[in-house]
């Protein structure tokens, strides 16, 4: 029953790199990549026909729905890439389109906390009482990314996006350890949110704009949307399958 | 000014498992039933594109909109309760089917020990086995008395299972459908637990092993093992849910209507009877009064308790004096367990919500507690529910939570990790209870329910002991690395744990210490019934729904009996 991947990892990296150039054009990512040679293979793949069992190629135009300032978005790109970097297994956050995923989420109900209890009074509680900030997620993200840039300036006198990887990690670790002052929220909470949003974008169905070409699912061995495993579940061996998006169900 | 609607025989507040069961049974008897559901209609057709982890499992598509209503929480009475602003520890459902739509389908009967836990513990270990602040009490009903209702619920739901567990109560009939497939992963658990001298058996499942027609004539399909159960609806109609069984059965009688977008805010009363409910249309915010001969509260644990409180029905529990019963004995579930990291890749993404094997050797009083500093225990299971990539990032010890090493390890171990876990019993404590919050309100202006809860010494001892047992099983299964769950300290409402909240509207044999009698009829108001996991006097070592279903059938019988005879049923 097993279906095997029809391209090798090396081929995949090569083709994803080629696909990136055509898609990104002279946009933001191109600019960031230009400023940071370490990222030159970590551009978004996507739309390459033939890798996902013959799925149609759809031209994707990328743009920002929430961020207005390209520098903030560039910080987001680099921060998420440090959390989920490109490696020999496959693309990282940037290559998977995670920053765009996060941008789009911040523009909608996730960013607006629209299904959450946001009534006052707001008080600082115990950790066990959970999120008590009056800030919406999209406000928290903007402040957090601006603080990252400020930390880069104060620690290294450079823009965050121009730092070495280890320097970016030092700043991210400072957030993780709650050592950066934020207003109306704490740095540890922001870091957790950023980390989780990065994983959401990497592994969510590609209909949300991340997990480009389902490459994160391929790395992980997750077949995505499959209607049934009734014929495979008793297999003694690991079953490799080409992934499918739930978007395939829309007829 | 509220509009008063035509009177009905029975009104239920909420249409999930309990509301659906009450409706089906009463409507079949000719009673006119109205179901008030604050969420919306939904059916199998709404789940055709449900295999979307982000939307349903991470962003909680099917869950309660907290912007309208939540609860407040604190660990102890000396803290200020603050709102649960985001869902986390447990996931409150919303809409037709309620939590019965997004459940996994693990369907148990609580043990004979559970129903008589106080008497049996005292008899065996003496009255001082636990300190007096543990407010343990019998349920006012025995397993044998409840057995016919368990049987009825399992036949309605078509439960797939096998009667091979030596520790559970006697069954009057076998499971309606055979157990699910015993996969290679489950076989690992079966072999290991057998080697250790335990008695493994297939977990009773509402994901059906084969197509089934229930006694009401409703069809349930066969499970396809797609791996999207918990937090999802089933696109096959193969996970038994109210909207494919009891709700259509009730509608088929012609005696049942459901009004959607109807948020009940008060139970109306006159003297020692209730007269109906007041609700707000969630679209127009118009106010309505639905008069009824009988009111049945069939919403979730939290809201059943809240409605009694805001309606001032019953005596509020006071943790200072121990007097009063409303809000008393809130309990949760203790979750010991162990993860194992293996060499070979496994098909962890395939599965079903109730696909598993279990041992009960450490549940209830199946093992001697004489030398242990806790009572009860928990079922220990290995389930294959379908691991999904956003939520499942297993990391061996000392792996960083992000960065290059994280990425490699989480990808490597996603298909190489199994876990054995327990549904540990939660024993009530004087300081764990529900009341109304004095500060925060819902969008209808009603106070939020306030939860005061923390883990206890009993919980910590149970957790430690059962975690050791699960680690031994995982070792025997051949894991190269075994990691037992960390000891529990303070309850934290942020990370997801379980949606097995219980208590607050407990049943019992004594009006002084319980809210409802063993027909789930309110002690103070004979035409008011309250049913759900809120009736549990403590939480047992299993998932709750099987026992909730049995109580709902018991309650339905009570409502029918009351409609014919009136008066107190006990």
Automatic annotation (TrEMBL), chain A:
Signal peptide: none
Keyword Transmembrane helix in record: yes
Taxonomic source organism: Planococcus citreus
Name of protein: Gluconate 2-dehydrogenase gamma chain
TM regions (residue ranges): 12-35
Protein keywords: Membrane, Transmembrane, Transmembrane helix
InterPro entries listed in its UniProt record: Gluconate_2DH_su3 (IPR027056), TAT_signal (IPR006311), TAT_signal_bac_arc (IPR019546)
Highest taxon listed in the record's lineage: Bacteria
Pfam families in the cross-refs: Gluconate_2-dh3
Automatic annotation (TrEMBL), chain B:
InterPro entries per the UniProt record, alphabetical: FAD/NAD-bd_sf (IPR036188), GMC_OxRdtase_N (IPR000172), GMC_OxRtase_C (IPR007867)
Domain Glucose-methanol-choline oxidoreductase N-terminal as annotated: residue spans: 219-329
Record keyword Phosphoprotein present: no
GO molecular function: flavin adenine dinucleotide binding; oxidoreductase activity, acting on CH-OH group of donors
Keyword line: FAD, Flavoprotein, Oxidoreductase
Every Glucose-methanol-choline oxidoreductase C-terminal domain range: 428-552
Domain of life: Bacteria
Keyword Oxidoreductase listed: yes
Pfam families reported for this sequence: GMC_oxred_C (PF05199), GMC_oxred_N (PF00732)
Family: Belongs to the GMC oxidoreductase family.
Protein name per Swiss-Prot or TrEMBL: Gluconate 2-dehydrogenase alpha chain
